[in-house]
Fold each of these.
Amino acid sequence: MTASSWLKLLPLAWLAACNGQPETRTAQQLRPPADTAKPTAPPAVKSFAAAPGTFSWQDEVCTNTGTFPAGAYSQRQLRDTYVLVTGYQLATNPFPFYIRNYTDSYFTKAARTLKHEHDSLGAVLHGLEVVKTPFWQKIKRLREQQLAEEYAYDQAAIQGYFQPDTWLSNPYAAACPEYAKALASTDTVVVVQAWRHLVDDMKKNNGIPEQLEADFKAQSASPQRLRYGKTSLMTFGWGNCANDQRKLTNLPDQYHLYDKFTQLFTHIEQSDCV
């Protein structure tokens, strides 16, 4: 075989050799190609600051809208706290003012409506959800005590009408002895004498003292002078004297409640002012 013939056969031999052994791959060759790209950070989440809260209330002059930090208070807390600022007052008045009201029916009705009103307002006050600070929690307790004090004061007047001896033993007797003794008495002289002193005191601070004197002279000469006298003594004598002994009659001024309420807000706008 010539050299040229051998060279022609070489590709066939090489192909035969290659086809005789299967191609093998190493484990490294079977792995997927390595990911050389740098990890991508997740997209940033945008954060939004919560908007400040607002609360509106109406006072005697303006509509007020206060701004407060987001989440600082709930609307109910602010609404109930403002109830403590304005307060509650029993609407039922047990004092007769006029002789026509100095009757069993008047005081019986007053006792019934007063109890219903006291119980209803007591439940409302107890259920208030006020701002959670020591100051407003204290004011809530004081408002409840104020209601109890006012109720006891009114009850003493009603009880005194039906049981005159209690004028001498109720919590206000020591501070108002002349009125208590006269109201507990059935002696017309004792009643008229205390009544006379009352009218003289009232005339000192009245714009028309002569009218008070004329009324006293006419009523003290009436067959109904005992009832006239006790009506005045209960309403204007004992009523004012006993009320002066109460300790919780002026919480808004004593504790500056309105100013304290406005301090809950960072900003207040007023509108519709009269």
Note: The chain has two domains: 53-167+252-274, 172-244.
Amino acid sequence: ARDILDAISFYLNLRSSPFTKILDNVPLRNREISSSVLSVCCHARPSFLGAQHHNLTTQEDGQLIMFSEHEHQVDKSLISLVKSDKAGLHVKDFHGRWVLVDADLGPQDAIVYPG
């Protein structure tokens, strides 16, 4: 977790990690409640047999997209960890371009997104 937070600090061009002061190495006591929040979600890939149940469109290059430009899937969080079962996950960057982010992932790899 500290390595991920350090990477976020580096990505944001911060001189030092602002997270260092809020982290400690003391584990929680028995039955003590943490202030951290973990949210888990799963976005299933559409199947061709059930395609009528999904919003599927075909682009000129033949790629299928599950959500249109008007149906944004937005996740607002500090850190997002993404693991896909096969390559094909595209993310829109700050300039509005779609970027393939999981082409070179191995079976034990995941993607970390700050923000």
Note: Residues 1-23+56-115 form one domain.
Amino acid sequence: MAKNALLIFSLSLAASVNVFAQEISSGDQIEDPKKMEEIIIFGTKLGLTVQDSDVSVEVFDAMRLEREAIFDLDDVLLRSPNVAISGDTTSMTIRGINRNGASGGGQGVTSNVYVDGAPAASAALQFGVESVWDVAQVEVLRGPQSTVQGRNALAGSVVISTADPTHEWEIKSRLRAAQYNTEQYALAVSGPIVKDQLAFRIAVDKQSTDGFIDNVASGRSLDQDYADTLTVRSKLLIEPNVLPGLRIELIYEDTDSELGNSSSRVSASVPVTDPAFRDYDPTEGNTFADYSQNSIDVQRSIADIAYSLTDNLQLNGLFTYEEVQRDNLLGNLKDLSLFPNNGFNDDSVETFSAELSIQFNYDRLTGRVGTYYYESEDSLLFDVSAPFFDAIPNGIPGISLDPADSQIIARVTDGTQTDNYAFYAQFRYELSDSWTLAAGLRYDHEEFETTGLQNLLEIEPSSCLITVPGNLVGMPGSPGLSLACTAVLPSDEVSPPQAESYSAWLPRASITYHHSEDISIFLSVQRGYRAGGTYVQSTILDGIPVTLQESYDPEYLTNFELGLRTYYPDHALTINGSVFYSTLEDQQISLPGPTGNSLDVFTANVGETEIYGLELSSSYAATDSLNIYASLGLLHAEFTEFPFATQVPDSQFFTLNGNEPELAPGITFSIGMSYKHASGAFADVNV
């Protein structure tokens, strides 16, 4: 199945102004535009080129992003073999492994996005679109990256590196218009403050669209997937002459987004286990459909410090802080004019990370040794209100409320704190001119604590009275019994805090054979993991309602990979490929309990998956203006162990063994060509 089912044609005009241009002296050589330059990847933290690396990676440098008219991270993922998304970045799968796990169980994720070294919180990715305006490079690394990056890298990772300040003036801009009232206004300015010592860069990107999804459940066009995003990023580069070898880069980025949802929820009239569900039409007869509005503010601060102690040693320090505030408004589409049911989500996430490392390069031996600390605090407040009458069972006549429009309010609060400590080391040793041996090891320790879930019910106004007919309370003929509405509310649900900790050793090793300067082959094995966590389950034991606090263990991935790297710079051709085999064990699976209610859910390490496949990527500069590119991904992912429970009498269990995970297409491919005229106009056609 093609990754893009539609043929996309993009035609854009780009304006670029170089205020100052470097003069070419008589001794300078003008490079052949067709001759390709080697690309350094940052995700491995060793400064390796793509051709020297021993990982499967799809790289989008600034030239490729512009040439192929790629405007956001979703476009990048859609053009990467064996990578798929549905809705937003948080749903991405890498080699058949969903970022949120096979069934949504687990509190960590299997892959993460890094922006200039800062791990992006899920709340920042869930509804937002990560713009690639003024981005120097995006890397999609497939396969476990846990040895290098630690937590949340079991399936792979996405590494975004934004453009650095320059010591020469540079200005570029973009104006873009497309269907559905899609618009983009972007500007980037860079230049010196103190010659060769202090430089700045400022990038601004404004994007908006009405979206292409109409909510058919309501029968009205709502532009439900609208988006309006403003990103401002500032960077300061410090390279003081008084301290040669010191490089400090300070980054601040602020993204404000107003977004709708790409989908609605509906309540089906039949359960999914009923054969009649296959014929169920979600646009007819549904009882519930959400219209969601999201306001997201992401602020990110980064300090990236490097100091060359000697010609062979470099000290590195990376410090990041991210704050995400997500407000979510939810309205019910039963009556668009009144919105009688509404909700409010307030999700606040703060993350801090610090990494100190020493990088060394001694002739045949290179490597990096470092320590890492990560801290995250996530607090959630969820309010939902509805008319009190909606909570009264249908078919009970004679019940009345005073006032009649009284509301029932459910207020849920929850919070988590995560602390992660790690030590890692990785080495590369050139055994000879033809053979290179690489090895790495990481010790990762994670502590997880919840503040305790609180589910409280309130009535507004608090003076609300409910009158129940006398025949329902054993007083036939009586006009009824009046009670405070609060008297008929269910009890509040409160769970105490939980705390767990997990540790893991994460090794990797590879050997590379260099057939020539242009061709190399590598064989690697590596281990990835996703930390365990805790859950609260409201269920029934021996006929008594109870609240259980339990925990589950980490899940692990072992990956074997054989890769080919070919690089012909004089012919402007690259062909890279990998074949891999992985086993995913102790998967964290979310299962329903016996009562069938939404809180009777538990997580267990009961899943196993077998994964193998192939990835190919190639690029060829046919002329100075025309580039042809193609990629192919073949994937087989199959559950070898996956118990599942249906919410039917006796909670019968059956197995999903032999099935493939969701969003794990067997074939993904992309092929296209791009053309850029000397005037700056360019076109891209791809499938």
Note: The longest strand covers residues 407-430.
Amino acid sequence: MNSRELALVSTAAVLGAAAYAMAIRFLFNPKRDFYRIESTQNGTVVKKSPSQSPFDPSKRKGYLSWDDYFMAIAFLSAQRSKDPNRQVGACLVSEHGIILGIGYNGFPRGCSDDKLPWAKKSETGDPLETKYPYVCHAEVNAILNTNHASAAGQRLYVTMFPCNECAKIIIQSGVSEVIYFVEKRLKQSDTAYIASHRLLSMAGVKVSIAHCFNYSSFFLHLFLPEPSHLWTKLRESDHTQ
């Protein structure tokens, strides 16, 4: 299978999985209302969107926005990751709204997911017994999976803010905007993310927090088992920078 066929199969698999999941949900509960996530002073609440009259000639309300759609693709891609501790997904989108590449964190092609370690720490202190020397991050994979399409001037949706190493590749590839869902900083990795912010800012790459899933949270329920609790947690983490 050549690179073009691989890219087409990869994209088709992601979109097919999303369609399959939606079809299964509809099959078992066809009249299920969509939900909206609303933030209040007392936390986060989940509300049902009102049903639309069959005589209403207007388009359906509460459909996925483009930001929702592309971030949902990133979340879906993350589910392909074999990492037991962290699953990250990314989706590279052209200025015309065309998906150019998708990726998730994992080992390079041809490198066995069963032979290389997934551990975060080594009992012997040997870094080669951890995942870190081997893993390719989601952002890098999304950029490399474009089937030679240019990433220059394009937008990158990613479920977690990129590290400094990914920031370098994002800048060098010409990506113009990074939209991320959450930034989770661990104490030992603070330097990497501070450096990432600094690099992206100096290079003129626009960085935005995704405020999607606020009003069309089908994918939030699909991927996140406790949306209300987790949404509050993620929102809090956005302001701890």
Note: The chain has two domains: 1-30, 66-226.
